[in-house]
Specification:
Number of strands: 18
Radius of gyration: 29 Å
Strand content: 25-35%
Distance between the termini: 26 Å
Strand order of the largest sheet: 6-10-11-18-17-16-15-14
Helix content: 25-40%
Structural class: alpha+beta
Number of helices: 16
Length: 508
């Protein structure tokens, strides 16, 4: 049968329930247990035995076998699965006042995918399967569309993302990923709150985008007659709170960047940004280790994890290495001893492309790092001391001219966290933001303008501060062994699906 035929048949079944005086879309159901509770409570019930305990459970029918006067169904709820054991005589007698021939009705009108509630006792079959011995059933929601074939499953990866609700129904490991995501985010909040950090919400709609190099989404407020930006970071507003007297703040929230889509990028993603007064980037390294290792142990029970076939050891302390040293290890070139032209020539010979696009040693260093080092950093590594040219919000390094006190954490070859000793000098900050604004005026779509209100805040005085941002999606990818960011975002952004007529035309 085609999907259209199945839907038409199921609509007719829903109508037959109505003719029996039963609403196929019930208002409520009261369960006594979840299936996992039953599995645990009656784990010692011997085979062939029945417990004289009345139970009520509800869930989705995921399998069914009718054999003469006996039937078996698999019922799945949020916690797990349990078998339904159904005898014709028992259920017909139990429902004689509500549905004559209840066994036949169950066979003819209830399909895989339907949500039902059942009442009965608990028994373990002779084959050892814990079951609800069903005395009564209720249809709670009649499904009209069939679930994917149980042998082939939902294998179209785009369809899995587009119809995540079906993906969750038929692929239990997907549901587990999102359970772990919730545990990870809860664990981060708990870790910070236990150390007296306050979570304070900041605006998503902003009159001036800032806090990162990224192309923003632009919207328009009709009443105020002004353009607004979806935030590309929470940084500048959280720093305003530090100026205002809070000493430990954070926000976990959605960030929006009008950029490409890949296995590690989605235009809408989640980060946690953390700011603490009177500390620097060294303290933030300790905080980063603490957050991630505590959450990993809590969720996974270990600091040695497997990611895409590689063992990752999260046991602290993690390696700390300067960007200069890592580039020198990878290329044999010490850029600090070279002129700009000498460094370009040496790196070009070492296989680093696009060196002519770099107008300074700092940008050349960063290019060499991205091309030759980044993907090799499999075990947790703090890459420290970045060029000032690519770090407009970080404090100048206290002993290394041309660098700033910044680190990025790399695990499995990708950035997972970013941190600074925050720039608190309002004059220096203005100069850097004005340099960014000049790039924006020249057509750089990722450069931002000058946030005058933020500069005003700095002029009131901001204490020494350490700031940290952790990419929640990438951390969840790591701790759930997920290859793509789309696997850890419940509803990732996708292109609209083409109508069937367009698909057919394309195939021609």
């Amino acid at each position: 049968m085609s999907e259209e035929d199945i839907r038409a048949t199921r609509l007719e079944k829903a109508e037959q329930f109505r003719q029996l005086g039963i609403n196929p879309y019930a208002y409520r159901w009261e369960s006594t247990h979840h299936t996992a509770q039953l599995q645990q409570k009656f784990v010692d019930l011997p085979s062939g035995e029945e417990a004289d305990v009345e139970v009520a459970v509800a869930g989705r029918v995921m399998g069914r076998r009718f054999m003469g006067k006996l039937a078996f169904c698999t019922l799945e709820d949020d916690s797990g699965k349990i078998q339904l054991y159904i005898e014709k005589q028992v259920i017909d007698e139990g429902m004689a006042q509500t549905i004559p021939n209840a066994f036949k009705t169950l066979d003819k009108l209830v399909d895989v995918g339907d949500i039902i509630g059942v009442k009965g006792t608990i028994k373990r079959t002779q084959k050892g399967e814990l079951s609800v011995f069903v005395k009564q059933f209720n249809i709670l929601s009649k499904s009209l569309l069939p679930l994917p074939d149980k042998w082939h499953g939902l294998t179209d990866i785009t369809k899995r993302y587009r119809q995540r609700y079906v993906d969750l129904i038929v692929n239990p490991e997907v549901k587990q990923t999102f359970r772990r995501r919730a545990q990870i985010t809860a664990g981060i909040r708990r870790y910070l709150e236990e150390r007296d950090f306050l979570e304070i919400e900041t605006p998503v709609l902003q009159s001036e985008a800032g806090g990162a190099d990224a192309r923003p989404f632009i919207t328009y407020h009709n009443t105020l007659e002004m353009e607004l930006y979806l935030r590309i970071a929470t940084e500048l507003h959280l720093k305003r709170l530090i100026v205002g007297g809070f000493e430990k703040v954070f926000e976990m929230g959605r960030i929006f960047r009008n950029e490409g889509i890949s296995t590690r990028h989605n235009p809408e993603f989640t980060s946690v940004e953390i700011y603490q007064a009177y500390v620097d980037y060294n303290d933030m390294m300790d905080l980063t280790e603490g957050v991630i290792t505590t959450v990993a142990e809590s969720v996974l029970g270990t600091l040695k994890i497997n990611y895409q076939g590689q063992e990752i050891d999260l046991t602290p302390p993690w390696r700390r290495a300067t960007m200069h040293d890592l580039v020198k290890e990878a290329t044999g070139i010490d850029i600090t001893t070279c002129s700009l032209d000498e460094a370009k020539g040496a790196l070009l010979s070492a296989g680093v492309p696009n060196v002519d696009e770099c107008k300074s040693i700092g940008k050349l260093l960063n290019l060499a790092f991205e091309e030759k080092v980044e993907t090799t950093l499999i075990q947790p590594t703090f890459v420290i001391d970045y060029p000032v040219e690519i770090s407009p919000l970080a404090k100048p390094h206290r002993s290394k001219p041309g660098l700033v006190e910044r680190f990025e954490l790399f695990i499995v070859g990708r950035e997972t966290a970013n941190s600074f000793s925050e720039l608190t000098d309002p004059i220096d900050q203005r100069q850097r933001l004005e340099a960014q604004a000049a790039r924006k005026a020249e057509g750089d779509l990722e450069a931002q303008g000058v946030d005058e209100d933020f500069l005003t805040a700095l002029e009131y005085g901001m204490p020494p501060t350490g700031g940290l941002g952790i990419g929640i999606d990438r951390l969840v990818m790591l701790l759930t062994d997920s290859a793509s960011i789309r696997d850890v975002i419940a509803f990732p952004l996708l292109k609209p699906e083409k109508p069937d007529s367009e698909k057919a035309e394309t195939e021609k």
